[in-house]
Amino acid sequence: MLVNTSKENLCINKLINKKKEIIFVEKDMIVPDAKPDILNTICTSGVVCLYKTELQDEKLRIDGNINTYIMYLADNSEDKVRGINTSLDFSEGIEIPNAREGMDYKVDVKIKSIEARVINGRKIGIKATLEVTVQVYSNEEITIVNEINDDDNIQILKEDLKVNSLVGAGETKIYAKETIPVQDVDNIAEILKVGLAVTDRDIKISYNKVLSKAEAQIKIMYLTEDNRICTVTGKVPLVGFIDIPNVAEGNICNTNYELKNIIIFPNPAEEHSINIEVETIVKCMVYEEKQINLIQDMYSPCCELNFSKKQVNTMINTRQVADIKKIREKVNFEDVGTKSLIDVDVIPNLTMDRTNAGSFDGELECNFTFLDGNMNVEQKRAKIPFDYLAQNIGEDTNSNLEMFVTNQDFIVQDGGEINCNIDMEILGNVSENRSINLIDEVEQEESNNTQDYSVVVYIVKPGDTLWNIAKRFRTTIDFIVRTNGIENPDKIDVGQKLYIPRYSKITI
């Protein structure tokens, strides 16, 4: 006979795979005829753009390019510092076990290192190392039995869980343009260096829509026509709506920004400004946190119950992290002398210490660019270690955190000591993996046997719970608690003697 049950439908989300892989991009380029010969390269920078990402069975295809800027020392007496720009195209397939076409995914590509070497005066070899981080998620519609109706004889073990049920996913393309002014005395000759980071990310939920707001923070080093090197920073607003039905306030949003293209060039209509065009894809997955009272196990002291259990993996307790980390440190370069500090690139790296849950080890890789009175450029590097302690993160937590430099200030003191004041924004989501039991249709078989009342003496063994003991002897936890005067049903001691009353039922 089928037992009357109540059921609930959920769309659960689980992390299928998280993979980090290093890929290399190499290219030789010929120096344009309009540029002087290269004596030596000074520094190389780049911005990664992703033309297309496609999840296939067991693989992720990535097609993109690196907009590369090379600052070099010219082999002539007139122009000491010059710059050239090129594009490094790449196409890569990354093996992702258990990935299937149609699954949701997040991909992030960062430049670990990029360098250019002189092959000859008219030819340069460029090599970039990219770090690709991929997360693949699977959505599964499930039905859970969350209540047994009209049968007082069935003993039920339940657990309260906060399960993340997927509301929906979507994406939007944002195309933004901005003009950054420079000093009136600066007539721009060449772009020497470019850095970009998407910061100040924010999400607002309205009726069936997600409003995504962020800023592309751009730093540009340029050469003027009178051979001065200058830097300028600017922000390009990135605002777009993502249509996702049934989203509501309080939902959790997991967003990702993929830069598709960036164009930077001196404004032809206005001499003292730089035009910037940015094309970005914003992807969003929205979760609803559902509190469920999930049945983990059941039995009846007076009849046989037939049901099947299967385990499914899902994410629970997904929550957002938004924090600020301030770093105040000093570095020292004794041979700086009277050189001017004209630029600093700060690259944050964050690694979780699995031996201490919630503790992250970090390192700031700082590339300092100095300039002397004769327009000689010199670069120096320093690494600043730091630690970060995130709240409420356990060993089995999936952490998806990113760090962005939002403010930096460097003050050069006498003797080459530099005070480094760096503010970083830490954003992302954390969740926990959990295996839950799902119970299918429940049937009961009535027993016609008459059982006599009896009492069994049982000695508690390691791993025992009152639930397991009651189920084994076909009685109830309440009977055991009342018979033995147990104050806390959640605490029994190994070696404790328990009197187990058997449940008695006479079937007529």
Largest beta-sheet characterization: 3 strands, antiparallel
Q: What is the average per-residue confidence, as pLDDT, rounded to a whole number?
A: 85
Number of strands: 22
Structural class: mainly beta
Total helices: the number is 2
What is the number of domains? 2
Low-pLDDT segments, ≥5 res: none
Termini, distance in Å? 18 Å
- Radius of gyration over alpha carbons? 31 Å
Which shape, going by the Cα principal axes? elongated
Quaternary assembly: single chain
Would you spell out the secondary-structure blueprint of this structure?
Elements: E1 5-30, E2 38-56, E3 59-74, E4 81-95, E5 104-120, E6 123-148, E7 155-181, E8 188-206, E9 209-224, E10 229-243, E11 252-266, E12 273-299, E13 303-306, E14 309-332, E15 340-352, E16 359-371, E17 377-389, E18 397-412, E19 417-439, E20 443-446, E21 455-459, H1 466-472, H2 477-484, E22 497-501
Antiparallel strand pairs: 1-6, 2-3, 3-4, 5-6, 7-12, 8-9, 9-10, 11-12, 13-20, 14-19, 15-16, 16-17, 18-19, 21-22
Structural account:
- The protein has helices at residues 466-472, 477-484, and strands at 5-30, 38-56, 59-74, 81-95, 104-120, 123-148, 155-181, 188-206, 209-224, 229-243, 252-266, 273-299, 303-306, 309-332, 340-352, 359-371, 377-389, 397-412, 417-439, 443-446, 455-459, 497-501.
- The protein is mainly beta and 508 residues long.
- It has two domains: 11-137 and 167-287 and 318-434, no CATH class; 450-501, LysM domain (Membrane-bound Lytic Murein Transglycosylase D, Chain A, Roll), CATH 3.10.350.10.
- The strands form eight sheets. It has a three-stranded antiparallel sheet, with no helix packed on it. Strands 2-3-4 form a three-stranded antiparallel sheet, with no helix packed on it. The protein has a three-stranded antiparallel sheet with strand order 7-12-11, with no helix packed on it.
- A hairpin with a 2-residue loop joins strand 2 and strand 3 (59-74).
- The chain is elongated and about 105 Å long.
- The two termini are 18 Å apart.
- 25% of the residues are buried.
